[in-house]
């Protein structure tokens, strides 16, 4: 069960599982903490996993005033303080990767390592046009299901559309009792689409792993490679056959890779079939 936690002037909904080294999971556009369910379930046997709803998603309100990525990074740092977490392995997905980058730049002592999934640091013309389409789609689609059917074309692999996975996700989203409003979606989108970190990434000192899906059309691998190239010592890896949300579509592969990275950062041996 989750709970609301007061931090940085806002009540954040937080889900926590497990014991061990701290891991903070930062979601992207629109996604509540439940987007990380496979990590909350699959990694909590060896880590203390924290996931939360960003401002304007799920059960966390979106107060009046400007919404920016630096503000959301400060939210994450304040939330860590409220939870008594001094440092954590931080994993950010999509827009959450921007928050994670900014967290590592603004609060470097909080970040033990970075995993940046489906990341970018400077939008190009294609990206800006895509996000403008999403902006009016949220308001002008003929219905919520139609909006999700169109939006998720950028998010999941063709196999997920073919095998019923996307239909199941849409049904779960429509049944979720804390839907995001079109206005909140647009405000989050505006913050993520306008933010750039590329010129500042050399200032990140935390060990970093950048993961890009081969089939990701929203944040294609060239974006992830540019992020990794700019962060000193960062590793870039392509997840072949995957798209924008590999942690949902291929959770076992994703969990194994990030676990190996975190163990490497901690100076531990990787898990084998015979145990740790």
Automatic annotation (TrEMBL):
Query: One Pfam match, by short name?
Result: Abhydrolase_1
Q: Which GO terms describe its molecular function?
A: catalytic activity
Transmembrane ranges, per UniProt, are: none
Q: Which residues form the AB hydrolase-1 domain?
A: 23-247
InterPro entries xref list: AB_hydrolase, AB_hydrolase_1, AB_hydrolase_fold
Q: What is this protein called in UniProt?
A: Pimeloyl-ACP methyl ester carboxylesterase
Q: Specify the species.
A: Streptomyces wuyuanensis
């Amino acid at each position: 069960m989750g709970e609301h936690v007061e931090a940085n002037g806002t009540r954040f909904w937080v889900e926590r599982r497990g014991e061990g080294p701290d891991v903070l999971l930062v979601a992207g556009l629109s996604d509540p903490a439940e987007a990380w369910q496979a990590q909350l379930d699959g990694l909590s046997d060896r880590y203390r996993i924290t996931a939360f709803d960003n401002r304007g998603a799920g059960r966390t309100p979106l107060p009046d005033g400007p919404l920016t990525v630096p503000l959301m990074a400060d939210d994450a740092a304040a939330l860590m303080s409220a939870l008594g977490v001094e440092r954590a392995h931080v994993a950010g997905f999509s827009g959450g990767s921007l928050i994670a980058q900014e967290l590592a730049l603004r609060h470097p002592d909080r970040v033990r390592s970075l995993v940046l999934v489906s990341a970018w640091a400077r939008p190009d013309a294609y990206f800006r046009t895509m996000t403008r389409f999403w902006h009016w789609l949220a308001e002008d689609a003929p219905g919520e299901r139609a909006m999700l059917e169109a939006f998720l074309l950028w998010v999941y692999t063709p196999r997920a559309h073919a095998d019923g996975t996307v239909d199941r996700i849409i049904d779960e989203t429509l049944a979720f009792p804390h839907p995001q409003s079109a206005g909140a979606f647009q405000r989050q989108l505006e913050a993520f689409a306008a933010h750039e970190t590329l010129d500042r990434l050399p200032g990140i000192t935390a060990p970093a792993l950048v993961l890009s899906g081969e089939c990701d059309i929203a944040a294609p691998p060239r974006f992830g490679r540019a992020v990794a190239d700019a962060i000193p010592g960062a590793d870039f890896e392509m997840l072949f056959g995957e798209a924008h949300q590999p942690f949902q579509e291929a959770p076992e592969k994703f969990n194994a890779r990030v676990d190996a990275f975190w163990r490497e950062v901690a100076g531990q041996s990787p898990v084998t079939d015979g145990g740790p």
